[in-house]
């Protein structure tokens, strides 16, 4: 069995580094992937100690087995290996053996894998280059051939971004995401990628087959609540974000949303339908929390993101909509005048998944920028409070929707509250 | 001139003169000694910016809290005449102990004028707009260690916790030695902000507590402060001990927000210039933000085209894509 790459867990690397001059290895080798992984390590003839890769369901778990040897070597070997690997070449067996001070196993008819550990690569003159401490070899009677290695890094995760990204500030932030559909799902993934530490996922709906065509998730979640599916996925791929799946409808369960807002830093509402957006705008303003509303308009022609701030000179969603309508920019849906929950909840699916994901990701960016601006991150100030993004623009739309090229983005300022607005007036 | 030196020099121009601080403290100590020796007084302590070491030059006033023995004044702390009575009682004591003509301990105070929460004691001519005053506030200690203070306008007593702010400022100062100096810089900055009316100095102190980082260089901390405060100022700025409500309900929030936003833009430019190695440009921008007391580079000061934003030369973006 042959492998082009060997994976080494951090645990295996540490065992090799702390175990003397040489030892044995056991490997799993996946032929279709041309991939091997170290699963245990010994010091000379002593007992093998397990040091497998996590997670356990890795492709190598079901693969075939193999064995190998590791050697402690001088840095010259790794320097030479870099030279020969550039030429896609190898060392003669004698040449390789010359660098191994102890325990060398001469290959018989069967080739074997070897790992070499060269602690001297950090000393001059070798520290100048990018010479790795651990290398893998395919050792046969014909010679020793370097093969690729991947050593699990000591640090994984978002902390790698610090200090160039405010990892700590975001990890202690909480975003309430209302709506776990196509925009909301993409936003959830993006929020986790930014490093938001706590996500409150709010959506009462289940995932249907008809959702799959544009949702971030896969068919294995069909029938489950969208928030549960998203929470499970994020737990697997973005474990640094803690999620709470809340099967709540903001309109019906407003009383259960209110207390959650007390520990929320910003609300991102990706719910479709007029009523949930209005309720979020109202509840968040009363709680004094910034809100980001994301949607597509005009059958997916435009993406729209609106940031609402609970300030005396800034209006709520209804005020913004009425200002836009008065200026001739928008027809307000008739259901806007209907009571909560009586309007049509869903429009037919017209927007394509990729466009919705773009809007979700930009909405996540706006939410994160909102959190960070409050923390003094000057580079996260936005150019306005309302943005319109042309996705499939048609000529003739009124400002600010008069965009003519796909991808065009326009920011506008916020507007003051309208007189007598029940949301914006002090309670 | 480097940025560190420039900020140090500017700090000297903002800080209260040490002689003034000494004089203010000496006058405060006379009050503490005189009032503290009274039978019905439990303790006297300083509470204003002098106590927090965030005072700005020139020093016009000193705040004092005089904690009385509740057993000696059983009616105090209840609604009605007691609030006025407590202020008159304290005013009378100041007159007897420290009155300019016949004070038994010292002859300092020309006029002791009971106001809403405190007795304003004039040590200079009360007509002088720069008159030095001591605000002495009577108080009762409550079981939770906060204070109960008289409020004449409401004929009642309200809770207060001036020690909370003193402690918070001290804690920040331990974390970051520039905290108090920067509070003074920000309080000074506010005096030049074009707003309707004034900005209370306590508003700036609370904004600093909420928005001024306690790490990093002074330029970076200022940039973060202005950016965060431009958001924070839109929400009510209340007593940090959460006892009495909004500090300045008539604050021109939009005016202050605009000024903070502009300062944030300038600070961002200044930090970018410094990061580019353009120290003179950075100094120029900080001088635009803080005014002529900030030491700008001499040779550029006379140039008519001192518009700082134009000074920052554009910088090519490196073609080093990340996938
Ligand atoms: Zn409104």
From TrEMBL, chain A:
Domain of life: Bacteria
Keywords: Nucleotidyltransferase, Transferase
Keyword hit for Protease: no
GO biological process: cyclic threonylcarbamoyladenosine biosynthetic process
THIF-type NAD/FAD binding fold domain boundaries: 168-319
Pfam families cross-referenced by the UniProt entry: ThiF (PF00899)
Stretch list, region Disordered: 391-427
Gene Ontology MF terms: nucleotidyltransferase activity; tRNA threonylcarbamoyladenosine dehydratase; ubiquitin-like modifier activating enzyme activity
Region forming the signal peptide: none
InterPro entries: ThiF/MoeB/HesA (IPR045886), ThiF_NAD_FAD-bd (IPR000594), Ubiquitin-activating_enz (IPR035985)
PANTHER family: TRNA THREONYLCARBAMOYLADENOSINE DEHYDRATASE (PTHR43267:SF1)
Protein name as annotated: Molybdopterin/thiamine biosynthesis adenylyltransferase
From TrEMBL, chain B:
Organism: Actinoallomurus bryophytorum
Ranges for region Disordered: 298-323
Protein name, per record: Nucleotidyltransferase-like protein
InterPro entries xref list: NT_sf (IPR043519)
